[in-house]
Amino acid sequence: MRIVEGIEARGTQHCETTALGVLLRHEGLDLSEPLLFGLGSGLSFIYWDAKSMEFPFLGGRVKPFELTRNLAARLGLTLQVEETGSPRKAWQNVSARIDAGVPVGLQLDCYHLDYFRSKVHFGGHVVAMYGYDERHAYLVDTAQQGGAVRTSRDTLAMARAERGPMTARHRSFSITLQGRPPSWQDQLIPAIKACADAFLAAPIANLGHRGIEKAARQVPKWLLRTDEPKRNLPQAAELMEKAGTGGALFRALYRDFLGECARLIDDDRLRTGHRLYSEAAALWTDVATLIARAGEEDDVASLDRAGAVLHDLSRIERDAMRALSEM
User: Fold this and answer.
1) Taking every annotated instance into account, which residue ranges of this chain make up the domain DUF4872 (predicted)?
2) How far apart are CA 277 and CA 275, in angstroms?
């Protein structure tokens, strides 16, 4: 058995920030999950629907692994990423790191993992791996999935080899600090402004505040979009609240990030952003509740109300990001 010593297997709410927390604590940098999410400029929005999709998807963060790249670049961390089409080479990349006493991040499809409670394909899932033996790999996942967990090496190989939306080619990564820990406090305002600017200047109407406005127009039609509303609508609501988002489609995490920043930075624009995202987080939970009810009760009125709330959310988040972009 090979186990990296000194690992604090702290499962938090979101998969990518959970893995980042494990890797960075091993390097001596212990940041809260909201700080990891915010310093990585992780908040976004996408309304995604395509003919090949069974049902539309509401996404609340940047695409998989972009948060990690953002965080590493902003804090001056050394991020080593390895990808390969060979399962054998993929295992060698990971085992060599573990043998050297370094935990490794993995991007994979969670569907195949032994311990995963919801068997849904998602190729953007991220875990931290800190050990292995002849049969099993030892991982840290979110608190919802059990924190410190294990899966068979065979199922891990299947999860890493899966191909489809958001998957990567057996991606593994490690992070090291260069010398002393970075002065992350100096990067709070640049991270906030970068996130706000990207949100406000999204290149297509499916993204950012315009994407939320599109969702406001489309969600009221969702009962006509599916033959299985009792399954698809409650599942969409659960993905918004419980699928590693930290609640409220990542808005609760970003609210908490802005709250931590407001204790360090005296800025009325920051306080405005924090207040508006506190309001937005509560409203996103209301939207999820209305969508679930619409599916369970075949209730068009609940979707109409969800659309009205989404219209308000587009304005609230636009105003919040405008204030934050001016910091």
Assistant:
1) 155-324
2) 6
